[in-house]
Amino acid sequence: MKLSSITLIKILISISCVIFIGCGESSDASQENIYEYVEEESNLDDPAMINRLTISAQNFIDQGDLDNAVEVLSRLIVMSPDNIDAYYKRANVKRKLGLLEESIGDYSRAIDLDPGFVDAYLRRGVSHANLGRFNDAIPDFDKVIELGGPDAAMYRNRGLAYYELDMWHDAIEDFNYAIDIDPQLAVAFNDRGLAHVKLGQYNKAIEDFEMAISADPNFVIAYDNKGNAWQALANFYFAIDDYDIALELDPSYAPSYNNRGNAYRGLNDYESALADYSKAIQMAPRNASSYFNRGVTYGLMEQWEKAIDDYSLAIIQDPIYADAYYNRGGAHGNLANYDEAIKDLSTVLILQPMRSEALHSRSLAHINLGDIQSAINDLTDAILIDPNMAIAYGDRGAAFMRIKDYEKAVSDLGKAVNLDETYISAYLNRGISLFQLTQYSSAVEDYDQVLMLDSERVDVFAHLARAYTMLGIEEKVNENLQKLIDKDVDISELSNELIELSQTR
Fold first, then answer.
1. Half-sphere exposure of 213 (CA within 13 A, CB side)
2. Which CATH number covers residue 114?
3. Can you state the angle between helices 84-96 and 118-130, rounded to 10 degrees?
4. Tens of pLDDT, residues 14-72
5. Is 377 within a domain?
6. Which tens digits make up the pLDDT trace of 341-386?
7. How many structural domains is the chain composed of?
8. Sign of CA dihedral 288, 289, 290, 292
9. Predicted TM-score (pTM) of this structure
10. Is residue 157 part of a domain?
């Protein structure tokens, strides 16, 4: 489940449109003639020429000819280096051209010339935000609030910047200010709800989304986000109800199909989930998450080939989608395509070098290919990343058993059960390893622990019979053999094995 994200692009929505003021009537004079005239140094301080260039620049802006607008404004700045309006207009044009870094420089020059230029601070802050420099954006938004006074949209904008910095409490505080100023600002309630979600405060989030909907009954995204919050609380039916409303309001809203699919999957209604993911893909074919989620659902249905196809489609849309590589690797593993699994899991580790579960999964593929040392290396790295990863100790212990290093196996398996007292296979493997080290009484203790956790583990009776044989406790040997017989297990081969063991005692 992925909540609808806040992006600083929304900041622009709250910004009042800048009206570019011309300095006179439009001129039909040739732009080429103007440029030639500017080249003459004697004319650099000519007010008439400055006026003509100002008009020309505005004409280009009005016509949407942004490249020529920049050219004229640049010439104007050469002639009039303290022209605040020229820097500001050029900054705005450069922003429209996607030249955000250059626009920041021009806004900064305008601010240097006029430290009280509120709109320049605002626009520079937005440019910083659009570049992902939220720490730089916030001081500019601070200045706008300081110079321009309390403003709901501006508090919201700063809250959005705090949100992007994972400063949830600060974001909520600013959204509170925005709501206090404008109690009907639906987007601020929605934003505050998303911040509460990040803090795991799902009930508060739901209240905020409901307030957003109250302020704007057609607020599709708020319904979608409320559904996601319900889903986080595992209230899948409530979530579906909200997604239904969102889709009634906007039948083409792909995120709600995707998220409703997640809710259906949570209810184990895989067919409905698949239908919703397919609809989401139809509406937004470039959205990687819908392919991924459909792949997950196919995986739950053990339709591994279809799962692989969908993970591959997700990767096409997002070539750095680590989870898609991880899951595809797992699907390949389930099909015994271990080389392919290793390729995918290795890609995960390039993208996320500290992902311990990817190292663990790759180790299993190595084991299945008989490359025990590579498996041990991966498990060792996983443990370095996560020293509390019981399964990594357990599987490394099992790997050491494969190469008959039983002392290391016992050590790792001991760490595994210390971390997880219910780790059945670790107790069993440690018992087997202890048996190989002739520590028969300790082996019996581990076998008994297995039966305490799972009384139906019939194979443990055979291990107990072997250990008691080596301990010379014939009564216990017979007792465990009888348990095998009672379970309709053929003990003929085991009986011969026990005879051989008794001769080595």
1. 19
2. 1.25.40.10
3. 30
4. 333 332 223 333 344 444 444 444 444 445 567 888 899 999 999 999 999 999 999 99
5. no
6. 999 999 999 999 999 999 999 999 999 999 999 999 999 999 999 9
7. 1
8. positive
9. 0.83
10. no
